[in-house]
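Continued from yesterday's entry.
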Amino acid sequence: MDGITEPVVLVLGHPIAGNPAQFALERAFASMDLGWRVFSCDVPAQRIDEAIAGAEVLGFRGLLLDQNLVTRLDEGAERSDLYWRGNASESRWHTENVLSTWLEREIRKHFETLDSENSEIGPLLWIGTPDPSFPSQIASEQAHSPIAWASTEAIEHARLIAIAETVDVAQWPRCQDATLVVDFANPENDLDQIRSLGYNVLGREEVRIGILLESIQRWTGKQPVVDVLTEAIEEYLAV
C-alpha cells in the first residue's frame, strides 16, 4: 500500500508524558532484531477518532491506545485499544479490546492451576465502579460494592476481586484460599500489602506488560522475552 514504507506503530495517550510504552516497545523490537519504529503522540479524548482514522489512512502498521483513552462510545460499545494490519498490503485495521482478552486469559489460567474442587471461576466481587474492560461474564456469581469498601464476609466469600477504588487493605481478612485480585485503581492500591495477606494480585505493572505482549504479537506474529519489557519499563520509570 502507499504511505509509510517501513513498519511503524503509534502510541496515543492523554497525557502521553510519562508513558513507558514507546521505550519498552523499541527495546522489544530491538531484542527481536525487528526494524520497527514507534511514535508517541498526545491526543485529547474528543479528537481520538480523528487520530485513529488519520493513522489508518497514513499507513501505520498498528496503533495502541493508552487506557485513559479507552472509553465507551455513544452507541454503548467500548472503543478498542489495539489496532493492527494482518500484513502491510491491507488497507484497513483489525481491532481488539486487548486488555479484556489478556485479563480473561490470565484469570482462566489462574483458576486452571487450582485443584478441581476450586477451579470454578468466581464468585466475583467488584469494589467501586466496574471497568468495562473486565470480562465480567467470566464469573459464576457476582456481587458489587459501589463504594471503596466491602464487608469481611463479602471478601471472604469472593474468589475473584476487582477493585476500582482506593481501599483500606488493613481492614481485609487474610486470604484462606487462592483468591485473585485485579486492581484497576489509579493510583493503585498497596499491592504488596494485599499480597502479604495471601492474595494473588494482577496490578498495573502486570497489565501494562500484558498489553504490550499482546500488541507485539498482533503486530509482528512474535513475542519478546518478558524480561525485556519488564526491565525497560523499570528503567524508564526510574529516570
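--- second protein ---
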Amino acid sequence: MVLVALWRSLGTCALLVAAFFLVPVSTDDDGAVWRAIVTLLIMALAVWLIYRQIRRQVDDPVAPLAGLMLAIVGGVLIFAFIDYEIAVERPGEFVDLATRLDALYFALTTLATVGYGDVHAEGQLARGVLCAQLLFNIVVVGAAASILVSQLRSRVRAPRP
C-alpha cells in the first residue's frame, strides 16, 4: 500500500514536470491579459492546495504526505513557468533565462536561496514576480516543508506495531 502511494506520487510529480515542459507559451499580445489572469488563478489554486495539505497534516498527523509533496512541486513549477513566460513575452526582463530548463533552474536556486547570479531578474515585472516568488517560498513552501520534515521525523521515530 505504501509503495503504491509512493509510486503514484512519483508518477504525478513526473507528469507535473512533463506538463511544465510541454505546455505551450504564446507571444500573442491579444491573449496576454487572459494568460495573466489564468496564471494568477492557478497560483491562487496552488496556494490553496498547499494550505489545505498543511491543514490536513496538522489535523491528522498520520495523513499521507504525498499531497503535501505534490503541492510543493506544483508551486515551484508554477513559478518556473511564470518566469519562463515572462522571459518569452518580454525579453530583457531576465538575464540568461532562455529555456524552460533555465526557468526551472532559476526557480530552484531561488527556492534554495542559493542564487548563483547567472540568471537574474533585470526588469521591473520580473523583479515584482520574483518578490512574490520569494514570499511564496518563505511562507508557503517553508511551512509545508517544515511540516513535511516534522511528520517524516515523527513517523520514523514512531514504534512499529
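The two ends are 16 Å apart (CA to CA). The CA atoms of residues 61 and 154 lie 9 Å apart. Will compare against the first tomorrow.
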